[in-house]
């Protein structure tokens, strides 16, 4: 029985994780849950899974929840509370299903506490990947990716010599605007953007998928997770989203991981690793599968991808700046303050103004993050 904590349990990845637990009651037990502010969902989860500890980032909502649940359940609140929750000795593995830079502090806390990590959050690793991976090595912690693309790379690399990698192909569905002209992108609505053709995800990651920034973040994530140079990582548009990523080795052999577009599949693998558990999840029917399509990404139409490659080449604090500016831009887009194609403009302006610092400390990264957020708000104000 593996005891797990699910951070972001009310979101799509969190809900999928709990469904995996529900399907394997003899293998996994939920001992901790955390949400931002959705205490209605958390209350239902507490009744079903009976965790020992919960955390609500919104302190007002935490006080409301405390009145409804048994006193035996310990409640943490705020960002500091989340960092304390993951230290609990009963936890074997922490599932990071929260989005954004807010995951960085709890992630570092969990690693220092010796907890294995099932990671769905990209932003923390993008911001401080080198620091995080060094900490994981020091504390002998496994960081197991949940994202379908990173899980595919991880599985394809098992038993392989790292030096034999020639190229990593990160596949991307292309999002909702794969066949939309750049001119028409200037007038797309929030509803258009949030209608992803393949995956059901939270709003932030869905916007990132539409701009291809999500794939850009995955480039940086893969660099750190697998210790590979950026010039070996390529993005490949694959609208069917059945091949989740591929590795080409120096001898010309390509290893690809295929599965149905269901996040429960990579989640289950990360939770059960090194075992594979039989399930009744969707399968690929190869007899009805007629063809698969591949294409190069359009960097002119999706400039966020090029900006991510720039950050990956320069490193330092620039990935944190890229991420922070993007988070602010997406937030403003979802509020209707800026247009869709303004997102990469804001990110580019903030990156251009940033004075990069090589080999930054965690403090340097956090300062760069704070600066970039404020600068992004300033740029949005000027553009608006």
The CATH class designation of the largest domain is Alpha Beta
Which strands sit side by side, in order, in the main sheet?
4-3-2-1-5-6-7
How far apart are the first and last residues' alpha carbons, in Å? 53 Å
Radius of gyration: 20 Å
The CATH architecture of the largest domain comes to 3-Layer(aba) Sandwich
The overall number of domains is 3
CATH topology of the largest domain: Rossmann fold
Strand tally is: 11
Biggest beta-sheet profile: 7 strands, parallel
pLDDT < 50 stretches: none
CATH homology-level superfamily of the largest domain: NAD(P)-binding Rossmann-like Domain
Description:
The chain folds into 3 domains: 2-145, NAD(P)-binding Rossmann-like Domain (Rossmann fold, 3-Layer(aba) Sandwich), CATH 3.40.50; 147-261 and 281-300, no CATH class; 316-384, Rna Polymerase Sigma Factor, Chain: A (Orthogonal Bundle). It is 46% helix and 15% strand. The protein is built from 16 helices and 11 strands. The strands form 2 sheets. The protein has a 7-stranded parallel sheet, with helices on both faces. A 4-stranded mixed sheet has the order 9-8-10-11, covered by helices on one side. Helix 6 (123-138) runs parallel beside helix 11.
Helix and strand layout, with pairings?
Elements: E1 2-7, H1 12-23, E2 28-35, H2 39-49, E3 53-56, H3 59-66, E4 74-77, H4 78-85, E5 93-96, H5 104-112, E6 116-119, H6 123-138, E7 143-145, H7 148-157, E8 165-172, H8 182-185, H9 190-193, H10 203-211, H11 213-226, E9 233-237, E10 243-249, E11 254-258, H12 264-272, H13 303-314, H14 318-334, H15 342-353, H16 362-383
Parallel strand pairs: 1-2, 1-5, 2-3, 3-4, 5-6, 6-7, 8-9
Antiparallel strand pairs: 8-10, 10-11
Helix pairs in contact: 4-5, 5-6, 6-11, 6-14, 7-11, 10-14, 11-13, 14-15, 14-16, 15-16
């Amino acid at each position: 029985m593996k005891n797990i904590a699910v951070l972001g349990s009310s979101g799509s990845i969190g809900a999928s994780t709990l469904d995996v637990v529900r399907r394997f009651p003899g293998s996994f037990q939920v001992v901790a849950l955390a949400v931002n502010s959705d205490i209605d969902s958390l209350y239902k989860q507490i009744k079903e899974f009976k965790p020992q500890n919960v955390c609500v980032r919104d302190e007002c909502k935490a006080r409301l929840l405390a009145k409804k649940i048994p006193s035996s359940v310990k409640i943490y609140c705020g960002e500091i509370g989340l960092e304390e929750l993951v230290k609990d000795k009963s936890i074997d593995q922490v599932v990071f299903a929260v989005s954004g830079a807010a995951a960085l502090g709890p992630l570092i806390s969990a690693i220092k506490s010796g907890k294995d990590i099932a990671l769905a959050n990209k932003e923390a690793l993008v911001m401080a990947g080198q620091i995080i991976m060094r900490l994981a090595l020091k504390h002998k912690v496994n960081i197991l990716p949940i994202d379908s693309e990173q899980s595919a790379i991880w599985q394809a690399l098992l038993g392989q010599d790292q030096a034999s990698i020639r190229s990593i192909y990160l596949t991307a569905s292309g999002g909702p605007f794969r066949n939309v002209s750049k001119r028409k992108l200037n007038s797309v609505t929030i509803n258009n953007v949030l209608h992803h053709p393949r995956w059901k995800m939270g709003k932030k990651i869905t916007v990132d998928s539409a701009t291809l920034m999500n794939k850009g973040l995955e480039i940086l994530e893969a660099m750190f997770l697998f210790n590979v140079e950026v010039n070996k990582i390529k993005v490949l548009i694959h609208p069917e989203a059945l091949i989740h990523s591929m590795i080409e080795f120096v001898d010309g052999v390509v290893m690809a991981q295929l599965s149905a577009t269901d996040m429960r599949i990579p989640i289950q693998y990360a939770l059960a690793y090194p075992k594979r558990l039989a399930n009744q999840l969707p399968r690929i029917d190869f007899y009805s599968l007629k063809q698969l399509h591949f294409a190069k990404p359009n960097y002119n139409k999706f400039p966020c991808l090029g900006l991510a490659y720039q950050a990956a080449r320069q490193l330092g604090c620039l990935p944190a700046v890229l991420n922070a500016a993007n988070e602010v831009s997406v937030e403003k887009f979802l509020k209707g303050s800026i247009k869709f194609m303004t997102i990469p403009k804001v990110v580019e302006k903030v990156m251009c103004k940033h004075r990069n610092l090589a080999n930054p400390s965690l403090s340097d990264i956090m300062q760069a993050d704070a600066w970039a957020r404020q600068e992004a708000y300033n740029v949005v104000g000027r553009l608006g």
